Amino acid sequence: MVYMLLRLYYQSTQLRQRISSSKCVRHYQKKLVCVLGSVYDERPLLSIMLSDDMVKEQGLNAGQIIREAAKLIQGGGGGQPHYAQAGGKNAEGIKSAVDKVIDLINL
C-alpha cells in the first residue's frame, strides 16, 4: 500500500495559508497524511490532516491523535476525525510531537 506523507516544520506566520492548501488537497489525494509543525512567537503549533479514505478505511481520528501528540509540546488540542490542531508551551518539543503523530498513525 502506498501512502503520501507530508511532514513539515515551519518557522513562519504563513502556517494558516499552508493549512488551507492541505485541506484542499485531502479531497483529491488518497492515502494522504499531512502533519504540520510550526513555532511562531516561541509557541508551538501542530496540525494533522488526513484524507477521507484514511479516516474511513484505516479508522484514524486526527482529534484523538493530536491530543496524544500535544502532550510533547505541553499543550492540548482537538478537532474532527480528518483535521485537528494543537498548541502548547514547549517549542522544543515540536519535532518530537510531529514524530509522535507518525508513530501513532503507524506508517
Description of the structure:
The chain is of the alpha+beta class and 107 residues long. It is 36% helix and 31% strand. It has helices at 15-25, 52-58, 62-69, 94-105; strands at 4-10, 32-40, 43-50, 76-79, 83-87. The chain has a five-stranded mixed sheet with strand order 1-2-3-5-4, with helices on both faces. Strand 1 (4-10), helix 1 and strand 2 form a beta-alpha-beta unit. The longest helix has 12 residues, at 94-105. It is elongated.
Write the layout of secondary structure elements.
Layout: E1 4-10, H1 15-25, E2 32-40, E3 43-50, H2 52-58, H3 62-69, E4 76-79, E5 83-87, H4 94-105
Parallel strand pairs: 1-2
Antiparallel strand pairs: 2-3, 3-5, 4-5
Helix pairs in contact: 3-4
